[in-house]
Design brief:
alpha+beta, Nuclear Transport Factor 2, Chain: A, 2 domains, four-stranded antiparallel sheet, 7 helices, elongated
């Protein structure tokens, strides 16, 4: 080893030779690739081969009107399990449980059929108080929605003011159970 230390050029040759059989630190990788002799037709690259680009997911609007139309479509399709996930926490507590919600919605669907929903206007209000439940919410979407329903042989149109509260991933509806006549 003393002989090698006395001759710096011999030390550089051994360093170059060792570079072919060991891994170089990432910051010196470019130096390593330059020191290796190129073979004809060989491609030297420090980067992995390019993967095909992933297609970005379809843009879905989180506009309050779009949310309400999706909720209405799930109602038409009687997909009540998915509808449950779109309820605000307060509304879920009012229904009691997912099973209770699904059962009552199925019973309602046997009498009433939702034919169409149209969102007329919408606005975001900084604060809104539900006087019936004595709850105040912030940044609420207030929608004017027209529903066309079928009850027996009659088609009816009704307008409702719908309130949506902000939640992770968009909105949640304050869709409470209808109060039972007692």
């Amino acid at each position: 080893m003393r002989t090698l230390r006395r001759h710096p050029w011999l030390d550089r040759i051994l360093e170059w030779l060792a570079g072919h059989f060991t891994t170089w630190p990432a910051d010196e990788f470019a130096r390593f690739t330059r020191s290796a002799p190129r073979e004809p037709g060989a491609v030297v690259s420090a980067l992995p081969p390019a993967a095909p680009p992933l297609r970005s997911p379809d843009a879905t609007s989180i506009a309050p009107g779009t949310f309400e139309l999706r909720f209405a479509k799930l109602h038409q399709d009687q997909d009540f399990d998915v509808m449950w996930d779109l309820l605000a926490e307060d509304a879920q507590r009012s229904w009691g449980s997912r099973q209770s919600f699904v059962e009552r919605m199925r019973a309602q669907a046997s009498e009433y059929e939702l034919l169409e929903a149209q969102v007329g206007g919408s606005e975001i209000v900084p604060e809104w108080t539900d006087r019936h439940r004595n709850r105040t919410y912030r940044n609420v979407a207030r929608l004017d929605v027209r529903y066309r329903i079928r009850h027996g042989w009659r088609d009816l149109t009704m307008r409702r003011q719908v309130h949506l509260v902000p939640a992770a991933g968009g909105w949640r509806t304050l869709f409470y159970p209808a109060e039972e006549a007692g």
